[in-house]
Amino acid sequence: MDTSAIPLVSADAHVNEPRRLWWDALPASMRDRAPARIRPSEEGAWELRRHEQTTLTQRQADAAEEAARNEQNDLAHRLAVMREDGINAECVFPTIGLYVWEMDDAALGEACCQIYNDWIFDTLESKSPRHRCAGMIPTWDMAMALRELRRIADLGLGSAMLPLRGVPEEYNSPHWEPFWEAVEECGLPVVLHQGSGHDMLFYRGPGAAVANLLATQSMAPRSAALLTTSGALERHPGLHVVFVETNAAWLSWAMDTLDSYYDAFLANPGWVRPELAEKPSHYLRRQVHGTFQWDPTGIHNIDRTGTGPLLWGSDYPHSEGTYPHSRAVVQEQFGHLAEADAAAILGGNATRLFGFDPAVVGTPVPDPDPTTRRTA
Amino acid sequence: MDTSAIPLVSADAHVNEPRRLWWDALPASMRDRAPARIRPSEEGAWELRRHEQTTLTQRQADAAEEAARNEQNDLAHRLAVMREDGINAECVFPTIGLYVWEMDDAALGEACCQIYNDWIFDTLESKSPRHRCAGMIPTWDMAMALRELRRIADLGLGSAMLPLRGVPEEYNSPHWEPFWEAVEECGLPVVLHQGSGHDMLFYRGPGAAVANLLATQSMAPRSAALLTTSGALERHPGLHVVFVETNAAWLSWAMDTLDSYYDAFLANPGWVRPELAEKPSHYLRRQVHGTFQWDPTGIHNIDRTGTGPLLWGSDYPHSEGTYPHSRAVVQEQFGHLAEADAAAILGGNATRLFGFDPAVVGTPVPDPDPTTRRTA
């Protein structure tokens, strides 16, 4: 099957925030602690650096680079890249912002989330029906989280972003109940991105860089299990949870394991609480999703999971992403599928979950400059 | 396909150790700290209790129960159960012993491993060609670990047991290199059982019992990743690692994720070290294995992993095991496979890895009492 005519939505795209974004907007008392950059380790892990932790040389280099970063975030540039890569729409996530949940100070954390959310709304969400952008939820305190959730929903952002691992409480805790209720009411999907909310540096030493990436992906089935077995997904059937850049291949393993221990543990009084109306796999299949660039196992398992849990994403502009070869990567993975199955994973699921206008998503990004348009 | 004639080896069986095993054998100075029982929590997690932590009432109840426990460990009883359940041979693991790696004291830990190893050798291994029993490796210190490894290999035990998560060093550490070298030389497979070497109580509260079991299984891909990306499996092609009761469905996900980040990270100087001659999936497929009672996803994925990584096990006599319905559970999972594939997973792989005599494994346990033998 030729996938080239299937409308393609990237469920995993990023912005590289201006390095001065937070420094410019934070009150003077917080400026020194403004997120400024992320630093890679040789273990494939990234670490947040605050303004006060950067050197004068770095700041000068950053200033020189700022114009180029701003240009990349400009809608016209973004649309040109999408056109080049054959992508019709994108779900957008932060880059430096992924590490804001590492901060200890609640007031600073809330301010950083708000600054990002306002900026991404102004920069992309408000200007483009082809972009659904995540709003960062300050999880340091539930009142704070609910306040920002309602604010981003009113503003019109496309999803509510939590860290991959629950902080300050694990995702099975009753602590989260008001949030699940509110987000279901708002109709926004919850998104949790690889690498957020926990120390990425699980391991050091030989082979750690690659092993750390599997370790962070392994937090997705664990958080998904907590949402399922605690009954959160059962109580909130409108709650959809998208694990971003975690692959989807773990879903079928998690379904089998949770179902079999759920059944076995029913014999031990008190172990299975709450009891669920259906087996855990029912809720995973219905409400849990995973995005991937390259996931032949996840695709192989759709006859067990259905296509609903899978969403393809390019991870543009990150180095492990598929730009500018997204269409070739898609053809290689999806060419053997039924067209309807491929279309769901490549765009249909994202359109429904993130509330894109199907008419917009169904058409390629137009070329604003007719002189460069190819003749048919 | 009818699986009833395929020789069945359980790659995951247990003994319930006599409760006085360690108390009887430890020197007087260590007796109070002797492992005595394991205590279940409502979170599906088990915790070791030492003699000094048990009450007089518990000790009296334990004493009353001791004769029954000893009878269950008697070879004749064990063989009768196997005959009833259609199982020709077993790989045997401890139950209370699984939690010995939680101990802090190295000398006590070493003594506990030695006591178990001598006891299981006398009780089953030395008496039965149908049993290959794991020898517990005291990992508190490398000299100690190597000493006990050579001792159990000379004794004739069937595998070398390490905790699921590396202690005191993670499994990518050069610390382990002498052990991989020695175990490869001994020709014993390394076995790592679910729930060992880490706190089982990942989570508390709603749904935690079931979620904790997925969390402990999720340590298997992480340890497998470390063994792969550190080059340990490449340097020791004779080293086989069997993850017991962790299921095998995670293997295909781990293969795809490790391969894709391995490839992507080659572009970042210093991130991929060591570089491997083949992609990570090559070593996982060749040397890593997982056992399961019920794993339809793992079976579904054999066209990606091959059958080599999969081993079926009954988990007898634990409550989540398949006794006395093992043959029905096997038929349901394997009936749609090619006979050669089913035979590999149901016994062929275990026979090769654990060094059973194929002629013995190929024949059902004989009925010692002809008066109870069914007429053909």
From TrEMBL, chains A, B:
The keyword Hydrolase applies. GO terms for biological process: secondary metabolic process. Residues 34-356 form the Amidohydrolase-related domain. GO terms for cellular component: cytoplasm. GO terms for molecular function: carboxy-lyase activity; hydrolase activity. It holds the Pfam family Amidohydro_2. Keywords: Hydrolase, Lyase. This is Predicted metal-dependent hydrolase, TIM-barrel fold.
